[in-house]
User: Which sequence fits this backbone?
């Protein structure tokens, strides 16, 4: 049995026109001889009636909702979407079965809101596929061993798709979205961003962790475990999109191309805290900040200066923690992180010069920088973010 998993994101199921385009992809796969498992996200984006954010907004006493209840609520968006999409397929003459995450055998831990998949029991899906049905599975959700509904966090439908792909031994996992594939930068910011035809799991994980939200990094890591190829494609075209495989697979097919820089990413908002380092009880500050569940970034510790960033929503709590130690931090709100990502940058001289040169020529102030073997990050003012991304994309000649 040749199995294909096709995941359709929020915008791909939001309107009837998009759903028809999505159904077209399912039908082409069927006529190519595949058995098809469809994974759907909730319809639309922020603000749309059944999008996850809207469901959250329906609760008046938001502070009084139990985390467990919140997951039951948040799983509704995908449930609605699955039934709507399944009906369209059925109306077009296909045999269809709808399964919730739990019914599809997705077992998770009980970390509500951000649950991790423990195992996938694919028997029920396999049985339905063997009977010739198209199986439509609600993305973004699973069930604990006790039968409680859980959700998988942002980008969770991508994770559902690759986890099912691995468990079912799918030939491909197709991630259908509103862009032509994985690009060298967010096409909403960089007009001439180039689509990458072929990339490795590692390259895309790096990009995704740095903020390229086109696919969730956890989903990529799952596919990588069993070497299931992913194709990131547009719902509105028949183009093959971006093929994501292991380096070995790419090498064997003669398609391995070592890239110096894969792309440029951005993430926001962050708040930067800067303190005089001398005599500062920073160990205690770090400890307490961690205890309150705030994650730090751009951490800089030296004898005379301590600096770090926190996600914007945690800023006031983070500042209060510092003040409670009798220290007044310098606070820079509304920051963004831009990053140049590429496995080829390690040990190459002149990269930082190129980055600083590009940003300076655009008048972008670098508030702080950091680097790893695959990534160089710069913290900039949010108001400079888009200009910074375009300048870096240009400097590394990533455009078309
Ligand atoms: P879906 O609802 O289909 O999951 P997402 O909004 O999660 O869609 O992801 C698609 C969006 O990711 C695109 O609209 C695009 O703006 C954004 N994006 C950010 N970085 C990139 C990139 N490097 N390549 C492609 N898309 C990107
Ligand atoms: Mg997504």
Assistant:
């Amino acid at each position: 049995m040749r199995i294909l998993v096709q995941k359709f994101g929020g915008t791909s199921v939001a309107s009837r026109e998009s759903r028809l385009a999505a159904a077209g992809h399912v039908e082409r796969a069927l006529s190519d001889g595949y058995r098809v498992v469809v994974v759907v996200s909730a319809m639309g984006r922020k603000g749309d009636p059944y999008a996850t954010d809207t469901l959250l907004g329906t609760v008046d006493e938001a502070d009084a909702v139990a985390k467990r209840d919140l997951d039951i609520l948040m799983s509704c968006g995908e449930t609605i979407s699955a039934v709507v999409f399944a009906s369209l397929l059925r109306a077009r003459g296909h045999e269809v079965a709808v399964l919730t995450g739990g019914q599809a055998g997705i077992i998770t831990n009980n970390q509500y809101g951000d649950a991790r998949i423990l195992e996938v029991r694919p028997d029920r899906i396999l049985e339905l596929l063997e009977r010739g049905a198209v199986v439509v599975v609600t993305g973004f959700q699973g069930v604990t061993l006790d039968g409680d509904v859980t959700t998988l966090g942002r980008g969770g439908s991508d994770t559902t798709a690759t986890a099912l792909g691995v468990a079912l031994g799918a030939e491909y996992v197709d991630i259908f979205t509103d862009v032509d594939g994985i690009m060298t930068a967010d096409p909403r910011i960089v007009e001439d961003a180039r689509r990458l035809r072929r990339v490795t799991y590692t390259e895309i994980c790096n990009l995704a962790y740095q903020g390229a939200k086109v696919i969730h990094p956890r989903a990529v890591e799952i596919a990588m475990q069993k070497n299931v190829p992913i194709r990131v494609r547009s719902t509105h075209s028949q183009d093959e999109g971006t093929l994501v495989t292991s380096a070995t697979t790419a090498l064997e097919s003669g398609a391995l191309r070592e890239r110096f820089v894969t792309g440029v990413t951005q993430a926001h908002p962050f708040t930067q805290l800067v303190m005089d380092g001398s005599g500062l009880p920073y160990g205690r500050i770090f400890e307490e900040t961690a205890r309150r569940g705030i994650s730090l970034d751009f951490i800089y510790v030296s004898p005379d200066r301590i600096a770090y960033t926190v996600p914007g929503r945690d800023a006031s709590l983070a500042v209060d923690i510092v003040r409670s130690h009798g220290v007044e931090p310098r606070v820079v709100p509304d920051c963004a992180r831009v990053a140049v990502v590429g496995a080829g940058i390690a040990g190459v001289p002149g990269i930082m010069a190129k980055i600083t040169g590009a940003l300076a020529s655009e008048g972008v102030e670098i508030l702080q920088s950091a680097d790893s073997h695959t990534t160089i990050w710069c913290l900039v003012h949010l108001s400079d973010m888009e200009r910074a991304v375009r300048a870096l994309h240009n400097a590394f000649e990533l455009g078309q």
